């Protein structure tokens, strides 16, 4: 397995921990209503994975920690619409069973394509580069 996929998975895990897992655990332990907790995590997820890369021109917290950056396929700065397309395309990974197959296929593509593009990167015409 190439280092590229390990860095990208690590980056995604950090982003999901910060935006979903940790807040849910904290809210559960302090007694928040679970529906309000899910709403908050949804807003935090959108903020961290859509708005933050738009503001920082390609970084999420996880990508920053793993020294990765999202670029347009032609190596220019990523546009806000590309970030939005990329995150919308990732919704396909949440489809039960099919999502797992798509994630595995995306890992395969990241390891074998010249630009290390997953399905969501191909859809949004983006790539992730190790700096």
Automatic annotation (TrEMBL):
- One Pfam family of this protein, by short name? RDD
The cellular location(s) given in this protein's UniProt record come to: Cell membrane
Residues that span the membrane, as ranges:
12-30, 36-55, 91-110
Enumerate the InterPro entries for this protein. Pra-immunoreactive (IPR051791), RDD (IPR010432)
Q: Which domain of life is it from?
A: Bacteria
- One Gene Ontology term, aspect cellular component: plasma membrane
User: Is Lipoprotein among this UniProt entry's keywords?
Assistant: no
Every RDD domain range: 6-125
The keyword Transmembrane appears for this protein: yes
How does the protein's chain sit in the membrane according to the entry? Multi-pass membrane protein
The protein's UniProt keywords, in alphabetical order, are: Cell membrane, Membrane, Transmembrane, Transmembrane helix
- Quote the protein name from its UniProt record: RDD family
Q: Which organism is it from?
A: Clostridium putrefaciens
């Amino acid at each position: 397995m190439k280092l590229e996929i390990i860095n990208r998975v690590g980056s995604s895990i950090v982003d999901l921990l910060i935006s979903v897992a940790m807040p849910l655990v904290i809210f559960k332990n302090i007694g928040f209503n679970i529906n309000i907790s899910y709403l908050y995590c949804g807003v935090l997820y959108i903020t961290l994975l859509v708005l933050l890369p738009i503001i920082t021109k390609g970084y999420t917290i996880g990508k920053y920690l793993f020294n990765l950056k999202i670029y347009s396929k032609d190596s220019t700065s990523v546009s806000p619409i590309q970030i939005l397309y990329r995150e919308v395309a990732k919704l396909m990974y949440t489809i039960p069973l099919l999502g797992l197959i798509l994630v595995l296929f995306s890992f395969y593509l990241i390891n074998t394509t010249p630009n290390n593009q997953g399905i969501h990167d191909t859809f949004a015409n983006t790539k992730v580069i190790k700096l």
